Amino acid sequence: MNAPVTEAGWDLAEAAAVLDAAATGAAPVAQLTATAPLGLDAAYDVQRLLIERRTARGERPSGVKLGFTSRTKAAQMGVFDVIFGRLTDAMRLPDGARISLDAYVHPRVEPEVAFRLAVDVGPGDTVDPEAAVDAVAPALEIIDSRYRDFRFTLEDVVADNTSAAGYVLGPWIALADAGDLANRGVRLEIDGRTADTGSTAAILGHPLRAVHAALRRARELGHPLRAGDVLLAGAATPAVALTPGSHIEATVTGLGRAAFTVADATADGATAPAATIRNPS
Ligand code: OOG
Ligand code: MG
């Protein structure tokens, strides 16, 4: 496909290549918007081209995520618009995984609520958001901005696929059995100590609103969704930097937990699956 060039002179495919190299090489780059204005539509084009590079390497789309759906997260990063990103199977880490930080630039973790799509939703399809998901799970998201110092504008973070880097899902619970999700406690534990607490009410007022927002954005962007796709609703608490040797656990009241362990910096070979799954070449 021809590389689209914007009015500000952006070669969008080139911008995607720069961000992709930053992710695969775990080496940060300057914010795109430090050079020239990008624009939100162009930023979503870069995001799409970035994911096309991943799928060309064999990764498969596995769902979508929202960011800045809570005031706390928006305030932490200084970006106050809800953002949409794309997940691939290479970002998925098994519950209880032991991961290496080698594959990341400056990774952070945040507790999340995940929903599972029940039906295929093509870009032209209109579906009832409540009927479109059939299960919910506690989750952890690893975010890793490819920009230096983890700083960005709205357009930068959208182009960088909303800092998406990894996710862990706890057990799925049928939505019908999960009860009212409006105000559930969300807790992030690091090495058995509470690092952050929040409520699902902080996610757009109700976490199911994230399903509405994700479906709407996917439609606007012409992004097809499939039954089984994961939808991360966005964190209700600020993200916390990952450090070697730590054990990370997210708990959502009534839903259970999701967890992973970060390998020791010195423990050579005790790493992966993150490093190996994440960047298949
Ligand atoms: C952007 C991703 C935000 C969330 O849950 O709000 C996000 C970032 O903070 O780097 O995933
Ligand atoms: Mg998140």
The quaternary structure here is single chain
Strand content: 25-35%
Structural class: alpha+beta
Distance between the termini: 22 Å
Order of secondary-structure elements? HHEHEEEEHEHEEHEEHEEEEH
Mean pLDDT: 93
Low-confidence stretches: 269-281
Heterogens? 2-oxoadipic acid, magnesium ion
Shape: globular
* Largest beta-sheet characterization: 9 strands, mixed
Q: Share of helix among residues?
A: 25-40%
Describe the structure.
The chain is an alpha+beta fold and 281 residues long. It has helices spanning 12-25, 40-56, 71-77, 129-132, 154-159, 175-178, 208-221, 274-278, and strands at 61-67, 83-88, 92-93, 97-99, 108-117, 133-143, 164-169, 173-174, 185-190, 193-199, 230-232, 240-241, 247-252, 256-262. Strand 9 (185-190) and strand 10 form a beta hairpin. The protein is globular. The two termini are 22 Å apart. Residues 269-281 have low confidence and may be disordered. The structure holds 2-oxoadipic acid (OOG) and magnesium ion (MG). Magnesium ion binds at residues 65, 67, 110, 112, 141, 143, 232, 234-235.
Question: Which features does this protein show?
Answer:
lyase, 281 residues, binds 2-oxoadipic acid, 8 helices, alpha+beta, Fumarylacetoacetase_C_sf, Hydratase-Decarb/MhpD_sf, binds magnesium ion, hydrolase activity, disordered C terminus, 25% helix, 14 strands, 5-stranded mixed beta sheet, 9-stranded mixed beta sheet
Give me a quick take on this structure.
The chain contains 8 helices and 14 strands. The protein is of the alpha+beta class and 281 residues long.
